């Protein structure tokens, strides 16, 4: 196993570990924030995915947008349809994957959740530098983009060199570095 040696690797590891911790805290605080609306963080994420997309979405689309599993998303959507937050509509492109749209109740719940969030977010960023926040967002987006392009040795997702040989580098797919 190769050890992490460079300063950049150590910084990235610190960022990754902090993201893991922040994810849990954000979900816990989100649950606390939307509890008065009888919602969970997951409910809020599902409502937000469709509301922010501005169009009906399938379960896989919602799950991918919010970084959730399809199974967990489907289970929660079924419950929320029963509670009147979403309505299923036929999907002309895929008979077995219905589209989900917000009902009036769902739209209102999302608006209320976002109003609570706006007050909470203002408090969170009160003493933070806006330039630092912008930079943090840029870095997270860049990492997200790189994660889509970089292969992991041993994952079976090897890229091929021009000669058809396996490229065992850690570079972006198709980048035949040796």
TrEMBL record:
InterPro entries membership: HTH_MarR-typ, MarR/SlyA-like, WH-like_DNA-bd_sf, WH_DNA-bd_sf
Bias (Basic and acidic residues): 162-178
Listed SUPFAM superfamilies: Winged helix' DNA-binding domain (SSF46785)
Pfam (any one): MarR_2
Region annotation Disordered: where it falls in the sequence: 154-178
Keyword DNA-binding: yes
Any one GO molecular function term: DNA binding
Protein name per Swiss-Prot or TrEMBL: DNA-binding MarR family transcriptional regulator
Annotated source species: Roseospira visakhapatnamensis
């Amino acid at each position: 196993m190769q050890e992490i040696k460079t300063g950049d690797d150590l910084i990235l590891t610190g960022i990754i570990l902090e993201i893991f911790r922040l994810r849990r805290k954000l979900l816990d605080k989100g649950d606390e924030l939307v509890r008065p609306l009888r919602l969970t963080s997951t409910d809020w994420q599902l409502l937000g995915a469709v509301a922010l997309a501005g169009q009906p979405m399938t379960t896989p689309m919602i799950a991918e947008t919010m970084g959730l599993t399809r199974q967990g998303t489907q289970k929660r959507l079924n419950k929320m349809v029963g509670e009147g937050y979403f309505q299923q509509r036929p999907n002309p492109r895929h008979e077995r994957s219905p589209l989900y749209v917000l009902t009036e109740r769902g739209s209102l719940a999302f608006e209320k959740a976002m109003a609570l969030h706006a007050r909470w977010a203002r408090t969170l960023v009160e003493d933070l530098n806006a330039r630092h926040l912008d930079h943090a967002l840029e870095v997270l987006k860049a990492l997200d983009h790189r994660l889509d392009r970089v292969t992991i040795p041993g994952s079976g997702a090897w890229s091929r060199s021009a000669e058809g040989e396996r490229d065992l580098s850690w570079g972006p797919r198709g980048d035949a570095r040796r």
